[in-house]
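BUG: 3D viewer hangs when loading the predicted structure for this chain

Environment: internal workstation, default settings.
Expected: structure renders.
Actual: progress bar stalls at 90%.

Input used:
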Amino acid sequence: MPRMPANTPHTPLRFEKMHGLGNDFVVIDARDAAHAVTPALARALGDRHRGVGFDQLAVIEAGEDTDLTLTFWNADGSTSGACGNATRCIARREMERTGASAVTLRTERGVLHAMDAGNGRTSVNMGAPQLDWQSVPLKGACDTLNLPIDGAPVATGMGNPHCTFFVEDADAVNLATLGAKFERHPLFPQRTNVQFAHVIDTDHLRMRVWERGVGVTLASGSSSCAVAVAAARRGLTGRKVRLTLDGGDIAVEWRDDGVWMTGPTAHVFTAEVSPAFLEGLL
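Structure tokens produced before the viewer hung:
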């Protein structure tokens, strides 16, 4: 991984605010930044009252064998191995910056391929889903299609763990209470993202998301991929579906070469965090 810059608290920290369906991110281009991200800095920036606020923080570094290398942080200062919507946002940013129609990005998940899908949409291949219990990962051997948890959820790895409940009405679920409860279920040693979904049609799902280390979010790319895979495995839908989240709709297709996700992205603003804010955090 490229060497991070030395921290210099007297220099402002430049960042961009972006979102995909309301799933919002602070993006720091470390190729131009004078600060290395620490857990304390991530928590401070993620505070929606005293900082900037985000669902995830994404740090861009130069790639050695890819166009870019990405690292993701949650609002609680923990790291995340995958963040599909942030990956799409940054892929769109890089394609607009360079004029390219495709880009490769290295994450903890591996090398991801993204491309311009037309009409302002961006597609990213989030890789093959991890379906065995060791890869999700789970604490011990069990059937990932029917976990030994009330409600028999499905476990899926997408570079981070997911626990998907299929229910009669996702909108009727107390997401804040149940999401917090199942995020820390002992079956998931690394905690888990939690989704509640119901079937609208064989190619359409309604879903809501609780992200580990964050809480309730309007959307989640990796969660959308996990729900699509879980629904197809259960025989509830085909492999190409539209998912309606609280923040809008996204398209997911589970192909032979991986799980492709396609949707809109938005750049909201570019700004700087003041040196005064950074004092004591670096």
